[in-house]
């Protein structure tokens, strides 16, 4: 049996499993994250103490997932394995997180860097690359087709975020490269879009609206301008999947099962 835990942060849903040296995590991600054919999710989190690895549904490991690290921290917190403010180790460095209130967790996001600009938008890096596009109304964007078209602008691919602003509130939609589709929210995308608009407007704080829920982002002057992102999290259920001998170790084509 493979034991798993399901958690959600801002509409981003994740499968969490404990580290096992015999497992092929890319294979597990390909299988277990398939919606309607398995448990389904936007990503696989491999837990090892206070360290995590993250795999997209396409089986590719990436260094960071902002909502994923918030869900992982929340699980450890409710199980009494971390303090109310503690550090999680990720591929993008150590992330400080804090339990703010029932079902709310904040994360001090990786340092954001603005990269190259083009006619498509501006590339912004927050643990992973995001193409940020400023639009008048995110509701008028065809996120699936435009996201697919714009998600391969750099080697390894990039996420795509559309952002529209009304005073101190931003609306953000994200197409995630490893999901091959739009997700209900993306914390690193929210941070990337917020930072870009902060640099453009001089504001230090935004409320964020996404399909998966509301967030708050604040620029922390005492942390080299890094952004503190706060949003909802919850653990939804635990379960297990019958495991055939070698099922999770082999690199079989998941389409053959």
Topology:
Layout: E1 2-9, E2 12-18, H1 25-32, E3 43-48, E4 51-55, E5 61-62, H2 66-78, E6 85-90, E7 93-101, E8 104-108, E9 113-117, E10 122-126, E11 128-134, H3 143-150, E12 159-166, E13 169-176, E14 181-183, H4 187-201, E15 205-210, E16 213-219, E17 227-241
Parallel strand pairs: 2-3, 11-12, 13-15
Antiparallel strand pairs: 1-2, 1-17, 3-4, 4-5, 6-7, 7-8, 8-17, 9-10, 10-11, 12-13, 13-14, 15-16, 16-17
Structural commentary:
By secondary structure, the chain is α+β, with helices and mostly antiparallel strands. It folds into two domains: 2-106 and 235-256, Diaminopimelate Epimerase, Chain A, domain 1, CATH 3.10.310.10; 108-232, Diaminopimelate Epimerase, Chain A, domain 1, CATH 3.10.310.10. The protein is 17% helix and 44% strand. It has four helices and 17 strands. The chain has a 17-stranded mixed sheet that branches. It starts with a strand and ends in a 16-residue tail after the last strand.
List keywords for this structure.
single chain; alpha+beta; Diaminopimelate Epimerase, Chain A, domain 1; 17-stranded mixed β-sheet; 4 helices; 17 strands; globular
Produce a short descriptive summary.
With 257 residues, the protein is an alpha+beta fold.
């Amino acid at each position: 049996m493979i034991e798993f835990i399901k958690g959600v942060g801002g509409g981003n849903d994740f499968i969490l499993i404990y580290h096992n040296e015999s497992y092929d995590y890319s294979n597990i991600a390909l299988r277990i994250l398939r919606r309607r054919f398995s448990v389904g999710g936007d990503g696989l989190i491999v837990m090892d103490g206070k360290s995590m690895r993250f795999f997209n549904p396409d089986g590719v490991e990436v260094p960071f997932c902002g909502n994923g690290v918030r869900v992982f921290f929340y699980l450890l917190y409710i199980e009494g394995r971390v303090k109310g403010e503690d550090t999680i180790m990720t591929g993008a460095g150590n992330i400080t997180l804090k339990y703010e209130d029932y079902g709310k967790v904040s994360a001090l996001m990786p340092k954001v860097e603005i990269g190259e600009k083009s006619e498509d938008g501006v590339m912004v890096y927050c643990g992973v690359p995001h193409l940020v596009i400023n639009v008048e109304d995110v509701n008028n964007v065809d996120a699936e087709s435009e996201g697919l078209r714009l998600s391969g602008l750099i080697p390894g691919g990039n996420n795509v975020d559309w952002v529209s602003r009304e005073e101190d509130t931003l609306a953000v939609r994200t197409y995630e490269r490893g999901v091959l589709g739009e997700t209900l929210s993306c914390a690193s995308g929210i941070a990337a879009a917020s930072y870009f608009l902060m640099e453009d407007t001089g504001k230090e704080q935004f409320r964020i609206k996404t399909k998966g829920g509301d967030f708050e982002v604040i620029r922390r002057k005492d942390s080299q301008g890094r952004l503190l992102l706060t949003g909802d999290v919850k653990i939804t259920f635990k379960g297990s999947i019958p495991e055939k001998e070698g099922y999770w170790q082999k690199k079989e084509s998941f389409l053959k099962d």
